[in-house]
Specification:
The complex is a heterodimer of chains A (522) and B (226). Chain A has 522 residues and is α+β, with helices and mostly antiparallel strands. Chain A folds into 3 domains: 174 residues, PAS domain (Beta-Lactamase), CATH 3.30.450.20; 105 residues, Helix Hairpins, CATH 1.10.287.130; 176 residues, Histidine kinase-like ATPase, C-terminal domain (Heat Shock Protein 90, 2-Layer Sandwich), CATH 3.30.565.10. Chain A contains 12 helices and 12 strands. In chain A, the strands form 3 sheets. Chain A has a 5-stranded antiparallel β-sheet, with helices on both faces. In chain B, helix 2 packs parallel to helix 3 and helix 6 crosses helix 7. The N and C termini of chain B lie far apart (41 Å). The chains are: A alpha+beta (522), B alpha/beta (226). The interface between A and B is medium-sized, with 22 and 18 residues.
Chain lengths: 522, 226
């Protein structure tokens, strides 16, 4: 999902990358800053602590030696004095003292071991003690010290060796608590965190705001372009100010206007064209009526004419009939083009419509027509005039091209669709021809197709009729193997077909579906 | 001799119609404009009017209206556009039937003969639907003591329904019975004339009691008053 958003939204991408980079940058900056500050603060404290511890240790050593010469000064008293907790004052930080018998001593004397106040003597880490024992220098370490009441405190431990008279080595540790420093560092760290998070938020918001400024007009443009594509040619972008976005909006709107003009120009042209076809067809009807009546009168008195005159009268009559059907088809086409066709659906028995069509066509005894109809009645709510016209076209075509071989007419119905297939085994057609089959006035074979007349508009009108029903008309053909035309229409108007119960390609799926019908239903 | 008035601005077509109709045994008057048509109609009192819808000056629809205002003579319209509003307008103006150009001359003659024929009065000479009494001999109808003028087609339509009071007629059946069409599907003819008939004989056109609509099927006669 994140990936999809990444790919689909510039806004998301910009904010995501800006915030990521900001987080990394601020984290680095914060770490460096924190370390610098903490080093500075602690170093000062350490220096002060070491100096103080050295001076204290020197004084303590002096006091210890003094016990050897001054009778009133008892060793135990001095040790107690050393281990006395510091008196808290304004300029001295609280400190603690630990005195431990060095393990370097021969006897390992531990008599004077002790710590000031409540401090646990085990607060001094063993590793640090080893370091102190190794040399006579002063050493320091940062460690947590703990009290007998369980309290733990950060501290600097400064250790050095001290000699307990008469000569026993001891370790003296001064412990300076770092409470104050830790409070300061805690405060600084909090400050850094707050500043960091705040900066990230601000930068995130800023990038969101800035990107939106650029992206919103783009998004609007995309939406409006989509609406234009969907057909709402009156949509325009808002033009605000004079910046680049305004320029985008202006050019976008100019494009839309020019597109709209172009489209309406073409629409006008095509409407004019349709009107023209329709008007011409209508205008031709009055003279055609006169001609037709005249031809009728001539035919009636044909017996008084010589043979040439008689034949001429026949030709006149048949050509007028052809002219008339051409005109009718032309009007039908212009009605489809103007989307003025209306479906007049009613319950129709498709089987009897097929019989009716065959009665009309009277294909003659030379052609064998095999019907494959289901035993029960197939009723669909269709426009019978249109369906009859499609069937008439398909069957007439099959009869014209069957080459003396039989024709199969199949009727199959499902819950939602009715399909009629017309299959011949005649000359068929090539793939190249198939693509032009439904074109107006296109004829597969100019040398032979005018035998039966036909206007050249039949299949085009049939296809329009099928589409008007929200159905389909599919064709399959192969040279020398014949052709298969399949009309599929919904059984109830307004519900588009979902499947085609008969496949136009006889090699596809169930081979020759009508054969299985033969066995099951007839 | 039966007298037909042909109103058409196309002189050649009018002349041709004259030739065909004369050949079929009618006496024909030719008129080329709507204005002349009314004057001539009053002078010659034809038995049927053949009327082109598209006329210069007074249009065919207006001519039909004016003729219908003064006479119940059958009117057949000629039109080049069979699928337009013009047809419905013409029928509403009072035309009984229409022919779409180019028509078959023999079909035209047949249609004219249907319009001119007197329905053979079979069975009882008087029929009744509700308040309406139909005299098949005198070709008149009386509703609540008032005589109502009907065109011959309207009369035929009413008789067809009244003759079989229980039967529901589909529009196709009525087209066959009254207009003489076979396998016709243009139901506008029936709808328009049923409306015209209702306007003349029903008390409330929106709640008809004499000619009832059977939804999805067609029409039937209302309950007989007897």
């Amino acid at each position: 999902m994140l990936r999809a958003r990444w790919q689909r939204s510039i806004l998301f991408r910009v904010i995501f990358s800006t915030v990521t980079f900001t987080i990394v940058f601020i984290a680095l900056l914060g770490t460096v800053l924190f370390n610098q500050i903490s080093n500075g603060i602690y170093r000062e404290k350490i220096n002060a602590s070491v100096t103080e511890a050295e001076s204290l240790a020197g004084y303590d050593q002096g006091q210890l030696y003094a016990t050897q010469y001054l009778a009133h000064l008892k060793l135990a008293t001095v040790v107690a004095q050393i281990l006395r907790p510091s008196t808290p004052s304004v300029d001295t930080a609280p400190r603690e003292v630990v005195l431990l018998g060095s393990l370097r001593g021969k006897e390992g004397d531990q008599t004077y071991n002790g710590a000031s106040g409540n401090l646990d003597v085990r607060s001094v880490p063993t590793s640090f003690r080893k370091l102190v024992q190794k040399s006579t220098n002063t050493h320091w370490v940062r460690a947590n010290v703990f009290y007998k009441n369980g309290l733990t405190q950060p501290a600097i431990i400064v250790g050095s060796e001290i000699v307990m008279p008469p000569g026993t080595p001891y370790e003296l540790y001064y412990i300076f608590l770092l409470n104050e420093q830790q409070t300061i560092m805690g405060f600084i760290s909090k400050l850094l965190w707050v500043t960091g998070i705040f900066s990230i938020l601000v930068i995130g918001l800023l990038s969101w705001y800035v990107t939106r400024q650029a992206v919103i007009p783009l998004r609007d443009a995309a939406e409006i372009a989509e609406e234009l594509t969907a057909g709402d040619l009156n949509r325009r972008m808002d033009v605000q100010g004079q910046d680049e976005m305004a320029r985008l909006a202006i050019s976008f709107n100019e494009m839309a206007v020019s597109m709209q003009q172009q489209i309406s120009r073409l629409e006008n042209l095509s409407r004019l064209q349709q009107r023209f076809v329709s008007d011409v067809s209508h205008e031709l009807r009055t003279p055609l009526t006169t001609i037709r009546m005249a031809s009728g009168v001539i035919s009636e008195s044909a017996s008084q004419l010589d043979p040439a005159g008689q034949r001429s009268a026949e030709l006149l009559a048949s050509q007028i009939a052809r002219f008339e059907s051409l005109l009718t088809d032309l009007l039908e086409v212009s009605r489809f083009d103007a989307s003025a066709s209306i479906l007049e659906s009613k319950e129709t028995d498709i089987g009897s419509l097929i019989h009716q069509t065959l009665d009309h066509l009277q294909p003659g005894d030379a052609t064998q027509i095999r019907l494959h109809l289901p035993s029960e009645k197939v009723v669909a709510e269709v426009d019978p005039r249109r369906i009859e016209r499609v069937l008439r076209n398909l069957i007439a075509n099959a009869v014209d091209h069957c080459d003396g071989k039989p024709i199969d007419i199949t009727l199959v119905s499902t819950q939602k669709e009715v399909a009629v297939g017309v299959r011949d085994y005649g000359i068929g057609f090539s793939e190249r021809e198939a693509s032009r089959l439904f074109d107006r006035f296109w004829r597969a074979d100019p040398s032979r197709s005018r035998i039966r007349g036909g206007t050249g508009l039949g299949l085009s009108i049939s296809l329009d009729d099928a589409k008007l029903h929200q159905g389909s008309l599919k064709a399959w053909g192969a040279p020398g193997l014949g052709a298969h035309f399949v009309l599929t229409v919904p059984r109830f108007p307004g519900i588009p077909i979902e499947s085609e119960p008969i496949s136009a390609d006889p090699n596809e799926g169930k081979p020759t579906s009508f054969l299985s019908f033969d066995e099951d239903d007839i | 001799m039966t007298h037909i008035m042909v109103v058409d601005d196309d002189q050649d077509l009018a002349e041709m119609l004259g030739i065909v109709l004369t050949g079929a045994g009618f006496e024909v008057d030719l008129v080329n404009s709507g204005d002349q048509a009314i004057t001539l109609f009053q002078a010659s009192k034809p038995d049927l009017v053949l009327l082109d819808v598209m006329l210069p000056g007074l249009s065919g629809i207006e001519v039909a209206k004016e003729i219908r205002a003064i006479s119940m003579v059958p009117i057949v319209m000629l039109t080049a556009k069979g699928d337009t509003h013009d047809v419905v307008l013409g029928l509403e103006a009072g035309a009984d039937d229409y022919m779409v150009k180019p028509f078959n001359p023999s079909e035209l003659v047949a249609r004219i003969k249907v319009r001119l024929r007197r329905a053979p009065s079979t069975g009882t000479p008087t029929l009744r639907i509700g308040e309406v009494e139909i005299d098949q001999v005198a070709h008149t109808i009386v509703s609540r003591g008032k005589s109502i003028p009907l065109t011959r087609l309207e009369f035929d339509l009413l008789v067809a329904l009244a003759k079989e009071p229980g039967r529901v007629f589909t529009r196709e059946a009525l087209l066959d019975e009254v207009w003489g069409y076979q396998n016709a599907t243009d139901t506008r003819l029936v709808n328009v004339h049923i409306q015209r008939l209702r306007a003349k004989i029903e008390d409330d056109v929106d709640n008809p009691t004499i000619i009832l609509t059977v939804r999805g099927v067609g029409y039937k006669a209302g309950a007989s008053g007897e």
